[in-house]
Amino acid sequence: MEVFQMMRTERFEQIVFCHHPDIGLRAIIAIHDTTLGPALGGTRMWPYASEEEALTDALRLARGMTYKAAAAGLNAGGGKAVIIGDPKKDKSEALFRAFGRFVESLKGRFITGEDVGVDVNDVEYMAMETRYVVGLSREHGGGGDPSPVTAYGVMQGIRACLLERFGNQDIQSRRIVIQGLGKVGFHLARLLSRYGAVVTGTDIDPDRVAFARRHIPKLQVVEPEAVYDVEADVFAPCALGGVLNDATIPRLRAPIVAGAANNQLAEDRHGDLLHRRGILYAPDYVINAGGLINVYVEIEGYDRRRAITLTRGIFYNLRRVFEISRREDIPTYIAADRMAEERIAAIRRVRNFHVEQPYLARYPRYARQ
Questions:
Q1: To 10 degrees, the CA torsion angle through 89, 91, 92, 93?
Q2: What are 225-245's pLDDT values in tens digits?
């Protein structure tokens, strides 16, 4: 990989390679863009097959965080970290504390938290060495589990989609099928059911289905493979990525796709296919931003009411995406990118490089000690 050529093409600011041989730490921090504020993104731990694969994943994820934060209207840029290792075998207090020291050395340019393979306990080890972590437990001043806030944001996004497609944002009696009844999918199903929607759900894990049935009495259930064939107003992918592809899109029987899963489009061209078929697609990084918003609020001192208020803005963010899509006759995934890029470009004219003091020094948690 020609690293500097790639950084120039994709406008990456900084890549940090973190190595502590005595502890076995090998990690990469990728900072994509800090025009809007400090790079905010989780830390992932994964047994990558090669260092190049780890770097590629870090870069892809960091760039995505820039767009997600910009589209959500946050004063944050995009970054991501990956730790090379097996989270089932290689975790230790020393490893995460060592990584925390590397995060601290960036002096607020990068703020991190949980991601795949990293849980709240690992983040709290990091917090012993750095101020620049979010996603802590409620007991330690954090926001705790972000999945209820993510689900609330997805519901706001569904309301925006209903208004765009049907001229009415009322959820009552709308038929919504949810693929995946994990943390976010479960909370979304329960929320929608409380608002009077007719909810159908599925999951590959029978225990999740049983749990959801116990807590959502009116939940209807279908087999995982049949979920694409359910006639509904909204199809909500809340499990794996890549579920919108050549095989599944022709089977959809819903005029709206709006869910919490990341990377729902197997390829960008599948966003074009949805557009040609007249299916309204809520770009995933816009509609599922509630979790990011929840940890962002920790930067100023966690306040659940403020997190919910900011998450409610997903409704208006999607309305703007749909307006751009209609006006320019482009797929919504392109419209979302354009909205994010325009915001970054506008603020870049004001300030083109993030430094710690103007943003973070206002908050006691990040003040120099």
A1: -160
A2: 999 999 999 999 999 889 999
Residue 4 main-chain phi, psi, to 5 deg: -70, -35
The architecture in CATH of the region 147-330 reads 3-Layer(aba) Sandwich (3.40)
Annotated catalytic residue 91: no
Contacts 24+ apart (CB under 8 A), 361-367: 363/299, 363/300, 363/301, 365/131, 365/299, 365/301, 366/108, 366/131, 366/132, 366/299
Q: CB of 147 within 8 A of CB of 288?
A: no
Q: What is the pLDDT of residues 66-113, one digit of tens each?
A: 999 999 999 999 999 999 999 999 999 999 999 999 999 999 999 999
Q: Residue 291: what pLDDT? A: 92
Instruction: State how far the Cα of 72 lies from the Cα of 112, in Å rounded to an integer.
Output: 18
Residue 41's identity, in one-letter code, is G
- Phi and psi angles of residue 325, each rounded to the nearest 5 degrees, phi first: -60, -45
CA 154 to chain centre: 11
Please give the Cα distance from 151 to 178 (Å, whole number).
12
- For 9, residues 6+ apart whose C-beta sits below 8 A from its C-beta are none
The residue annotated as part of the active site, out of 80, 88, 89, 183, is: 80
Q: List pLDDT tens digits, range 35-45.
A: 999 999 999 99
- Architecture per CATH, domain 3-68+75-133, reads as 3-Layer(aba) Sandwich (3.40)
Cβ pair 216, 206 in contact under 8 A: no
